[in-house]
Design brief:
Elements (H helix, E strand, L loop, with lengths): L1 H33 L12 E2 L2 E2 L21 E3 L6 E4 L2 E7 L3 E7 L1 E5 L5 E5 L2 E3 L4 E3 L3 E6 L2 E10 L2 E10 L16 E5 L5 E9 L12 E8 L9 H4 L5 E8 L6 H7 L8 E5 L8 E5 L3 E3 L7 E3 L13 E6 L2 E6 L3 E4 L2 E4 L4 H43 L2 H9 L2 H6 L1 E3 L1 H7 L8 E4 L3 E7 L5 E7 L7 H13 L8 E5 L6 E5 L6 H6 L1 H4 L4 H21 L3 E3 L8 E3 L5 E3 L6 E3 L6 E2 L11 H6 L1 E2 L1 H17 L15 H10 L3 H4 L10 H14 L10 H13 L24 E8 L2 E8 L16
Helix pairs in contact: 5-8, 11-13, 11-17, 13-16, 16-17
Length: about 750
C-alpha cells in the first residue's frame, strides 16, 4: 500500500513539472507573437493571398505611399484566389530590402511547316517608371533560328542589346549551356527601366521546324534557369517566367528628401542613397540591433538578443539593452579575462585558467602556421598546374627559338600583375564585356599597361593560343597595339598590352564634343594608318592574320591621333597554303561581312568589308547601327551604299569635313568604301590595294568642288529585312557592348549573288 502511495506521489510530481514546462513554452510562443513587427499602416491589410504587402506598398487608398501610383497593389480575385498585381504583372513577393518578385510573359514567334506565322507575340514590355530590372535577371532567347533584342532606358539614354541562337539539329546542343547553340543570353545592366523585348526568326523556322517551330525570348532570374534541349518544343505561347524588380523611394537623395519634408524612413533606421548612378531614389534599413519595417514611423523595434540562450556562455547571463545587449556573470562569480570564476577562487584556479589560455593560443598559432604552409604549397602547385595547362613550356620553347621575341616579350607572374593592378581593384577597370575585363596596370618600372583578364578558357585552343602569341610578339608595326607578354599561372592566360591613352576611335567619331576636333585630314590619316596595319597583318606577317572584328571601338588613338589596331581576341591565323577558314560566325553585326555570316567561310575580304564600314563612319559621323534612325537607315552600310548610288553623297557626309577643295577627294574615298562594302568578297579589293589607294588620295592635290546631284534618282535597296545580334568585346583599354542589325538580301534584287547573301 505504501508502495502505491509513493508511486502516486511521484506521478503527480512529474505531471506538475510537465505542466510547468508547457506553460513556459506557451508563454515564450505568445511573447514571440507579441513582438512580431507590423508590415503595413494601421487598419491596412498586410497581405494579399500568400504574399505579404509591406508599406510603402498597399492594396487600397490610404494604405500606400501616395507620391507614387506604382506602390498601389491590385489584389485581384479574378482567378478565384487573391492575387497581387502591379500593372499587368502577378507579384510573387515583396521585400523591404528593395526587391519585388513578379511573373513576366515571354515573347514568342511561331510558324507552321509551310513557314506561315501561327502567332507573333513579339512585343512584351515593362513600363513601370518607379521600378528597375534587377541585375539578378538575364535576358534569354531560345530557338535554332532565332534572334531577339531587348531595349529600354539606361541613365536617361536609349539602350538596346540582344543575342542570336542558331543550330541545324539537336546534336550540338549541350544541356545547361546557353551560349548561342539553341539558346543565348545577355546580362541585364544595373538601372534599366521601361523595358520591352521581342523574339524573331531568320527563316520562319523552315529549316528547323521538325524540332523547333518557335522562337522565344524572356527575362528570368539567373538562378531559376537552366537550359534544356526540351525547351525547343516544350515552351508555350505567353508562358510566364519569374523575374525580380528593384524598387526605391522617389528620385531624390536622402538629404534632399529630409529637407523637402517628404522623408519616409522611420525611427531607428538608416537611409542609403542609390548613388551608383544606375537609378535615382533611396532606401531605408533598420539599424543594427533592430528589426521591422523601416518605412513605418515606429517600424524598427529592438531585438531581444537574450532570447538566444547561447549568446552568453558559461556562468553568464544575458542583459538586453536598446539596440544591443551585454553579458554579466551570475551572482557569486566575477570576470577574469572574459571568463566567470567564483569570487573566492584559489590561486590554483587562476593558474589553471592562465595555462589553459596560453595552451590554446599556442595550439591556435601552430594550427595557423600549418594551415598557411599547406595553403601556400597548394597555391604554388596550382600555379604550376595552370602554367603547364596553358602551354607555358611550349611557349618558353617557342620564344627561345625566336631571340627577337625573347627580348621584347615577357612571361609575367601572378604577383607582378596583382601588384600592377592593386589586386585587380575595381577602380583600375578600363572596360569589360563578354570576353573578360581589361585593367589599367603600372609595372615595377612605371610602365603603364593594359591587362586583359579573360572570363573563360578553351583548353583545346592552347596550342593555337601559343602560335598566336608567337606571331603577335613578332609584329612590329607602329599602327598595331604592342603585346608586351602574358601570364600563364592563372586558369586562363592574361595578356599584357601597351596602354593607349586617348581612347577609341568610336568615342572620337560619335561624341559631339570630340568629333568637331577630328578634321578631315586627321580622319584620312587615321583611315590610311588602319588600312596599312590590316594590309600588314594580311600580307607581311609570317602567317596571315585575319582580325575578324575590325570596328571603330577596336581602333585606339594616341595623343598624336595615331591609329592603333587593337583586340585580337577574335583573330585567326591562316596557314600559308589556305585562303579561307571555316569557323563559327563571330564578330560585331553592323560590321560583319554578310557573305561570311551566310557561309561561315572566313577570308581576308571579311576584314575589308568591316574596314568599309569604318570608312563610312569616318565620312558620315554615324554609328554602324542605330535604332534611333528610321528603319531604312538603321544599318549604315546599306544606307551609305544606297546614298552613293542615288547621288546623295553630300547629304550624308558630316558637315564640318566638307570644303570646296576636297569634294572630289571625298567622292573617291566614298567610292573606295563602297567597293569594300561589296556583298561578294571577290568584288572587294585586297587590303593592300586599299592602303595603296588611300596613300595616293592622301597625297593628291585638292580639287575644286564638283557638281553633285544631291537629289539624284533613287535606286532600289539591295538589302532589307531586319536581323539582330549581340556581341561584347574587350579591347585594350576599352569595352564595348554592340547590338547590330543586319538587313537580309532580297533574292529578286540580287540575281548575281548566290544563296541570297
Amino acid at each position: 500500500m505504501l508502495f502505491w502511495e509513493s508511486r502516486g506521489a511521484m506521478g503527480f510530481h512529474s505531471m506538475l513539472v510537465l505542466v510547468t514546462w508547457v506553460g513556459v513554452m506557451l508563454t515564450a510562443i505568445m511573447a514571440a507573437a507579441a513582438i512580431a513587427y507590423p508590415l503595413a499602416l494601421p487598419n491596412c491589410p498586410d497581405r494579399c493571398g500568400d504574399v505579404k504587402i509591406p508599406y510603402p506598398f498597399g492594396t487600397r487608398e490610404g494604405c500606400y505611399r501616395k507620391e507614387s501610383r506604382n506602390f498601389i497593389i491590385n489584389c485581384s480575385n479574378s482567378s478565384g484566389q487573391p492575387q497581387p498585381m502591379t500593372g499587368d504583372l502577378p507579384i510573387t513577393s515583396i521585400s523591404i530590402e528593395g526587391e519585388m518578385g513578379v511573373m513576366m510573359d515571354s515573347s514568342t514567334d511561331c510558324y507552321n511547316q509551310s513557314g506561315t506565322a501561327l502567332s507573333n507575340d513579339t512585343e512584351q514590355g515593362l513600363l513601370l517608371s518607379s521600378f528597375t530590372v534587377s541585375v539578378t535577371n538575364m535576358f534569354v532567347a531560345v530557338g535554332c533560328d532565332t534572334f531577339a533584342f531587348l531595349s529600354g532606358i539606361l541613365k536617361d539614354e536609349p539602350f538596346t542589346t540582344g543575342c542570336l541562337s542558331k543550330c541545324n539539329n539537336t546534336g550540338n546542343i549541350v544541356n545547361g549551356n546557353c551560349s548561342g547553340i539553341g539558346c543565348c543570353h545577355v546580362d541585364i545592366p544595373e538601372g534599366l527601366t521601361h523595358v520591352d523585348f521581342a523574339a524573331y526568326s531568320f527563316k520562319n523556322h523552315s529549316d528547323v521546324w521538325s524540332f523547333n517551330p518557335c522562337s522565344f525570348a524572356f527575362i528570368i532570374q539567373k538562378d531559376e534557369f537552366s537550359f534544356s534541349s526540351d525547351y525547343l518544343t516544350s515552351l508555350r505561347n505567353n508562358e510566364s517566367f519569374p523575374m525580380v524588380l528593384d524598387w526605391a523611394i522617389g528620385n531624390e537623395t536622402c538629404e534632399v528628401a529630409r529637407n523637402k519634408g517628404n522623408y519616409i524612413c522611420g525611427a531607428n533606421s538608416n537611409c542609403s542613397d542609390l548613388n551608383n548612378g544606375s537609378a535615382p531614389g533611396y532606401r531605408c534599413k533598420c539599424k543594427e540591433g533592430y528589426v521591422g519595417n523601416p518605412y513605418l514611423k515606429d517600424g524598427c523595434q529592438d531585438i531581444d538578443e537574450c532570447n538566444d540562450k547561447l549568446k552568453c556562455p558559461g556562468k553568464q547571463i544575458c542583459v538586453n539593452e536598446v539596440g544591443s545587449y551585454h553579458c554579466s556573470c551570475i551572482k557569486g562569480y566575477h570576470k577574469v579575462e572574459e571568463v566567470c570564476v567564483p569570487r573566492r577562487s584559489s590561486l590554483t584556479i587562476y593558474l589553471a585558467v592562465g595555462i589553459s589560455i596560453i595552451s590554446l593560443l599556442v595550439l591556435l598559432l601552430g594550427c595557423s602556421w600549418i594551415y598557411y604552409g599547406l595553403k601556400k604549397r597548394k597555391i604554388i602547385k596550382l600555379k604550376e598546374k595552370f602554367f603547364h595547362q596553358n602551354g607555358g613550356l611550349l611557349l618558353k620553347q617557342q620564344l627561345s627559338n625566336h631571340q627577337k621575341s625573347m627580348e621584347t616579350t615577357k612571361i609575367f607572374t601572378t604577383e607582378e600583375l596583382k601588384k600592377a593592378t592593386n589586386n585587380y581593384d575595381k577602380s583600375r577597370v578600363l572596360g569589360q564585356g563578354g570576353y573578360g575585363t581589361v585593367y589599367r596596370g603600372v609595372l615595377s618600372d612605371n610602365t603603364i599597361v593594359a591587362i586583359k583578364k579573360s572570363k573563360i578558357g578553351d583548353q583545346s585552343q592552347i596550342e593555337q593560343f601559343i602560335n598566336e602569341m608567337i606571331v603577335l610578339t613578332q609584329i612590329n608595326h607602329r599602327n598595331v597595339v604592342k603585346l608586351f607578354g602574358c601570364c600563364l599561372e592563372t586558369e586562363v592566360p592574361l595578356l599584357v598590352y601597351e596602354f593607349i591613352t586617348y581612347g577609341t576611335l568610336s568615342n572620337h567619331v560619335h561624341d559631339k564634343s570630340l568629333s568637331s576636333l577630328l578634321s578631315w585630314e586627321k580622319r584620312l590619316k587615321i583611315a590610311t594608318e588602319i588600312a596599312g596595319a590590316l594590309a600588314y597583318l594580311h600580307s607581311s606577317a609570317s602567317m596571315s592574320i585575319i582580325h575578324r572584328d575590325v570596328k571603330t571601338a577596336n581602333i585606339l588613338l594616341d595623343d598624336d591621333y595615331t591609329a592603333k589596331v587593337a583586340d585580337f581576341g577574335a583573330s585567326r591565323l591562316v596557314p600559308l597554303d589556305q585562303t579561307q577558314l571555316t569557323t563559327l560566325v563571330q564578330g560585331t553585326l553592323g560590321y560583319l561581312d554578310p557573305e561570311y555570316m551566310q557561309t561561315s567561310q572566313l577570308t581576308e575580304k571579311s576584314d575589308v568589308y568591316s574596314f568599309g564600314v569604318v570608312m563610312a563612319e569616318l565620312l558620315t559621323g554615324k554609328k554602324a547601327l542605330s535604332f534611333a534612325r528610321p528603319e531604312i537607315d538603321r544599318n549604315l552600310a546599306i544606307s551609305f551604299v544606297s546614298a552613293i548610288k542615288e547621288d546623295r553623297l553630300l547629304q550624308i557626309l558630316e558637315d564640318h569635313i566638307v570644303s570646296e577643295g576636297n569634294i572630289e577627294q571625298l567622292k573617291e574615298i566614298a567610292n573606295l568604301a563602297k567597293q569594300c562594302l561589296s556583298l561578294k568578297g571577290e568584288d572587294r579589293p585586297f587590303m593592300k590595294e586599299v592602303a595603296k589607294e588611300l596613300e595616293r588620295l592622301r597625297s593628291m592635290e585638292k580639287t575644286p568642288l564638283g557638281n553633285i546631284d544631291v537629289d539624284g534618282k533613287k535606286t532600289e535597296y539591295l538589302l532589307s529585312a531586319t536581323s539582330h545580334s549581340f556581341n561584347i568585346d574587350v579591347g585594350t583599354g576599352c569595352s564595348t557592348s554592340t547590338i547590330a542589325e543586319y538587313d537580309s538580301i532580297r533574292e529578286q534584287e540580287l540575281k548575281s549573288v548566290e544563296d541570297g547573301r
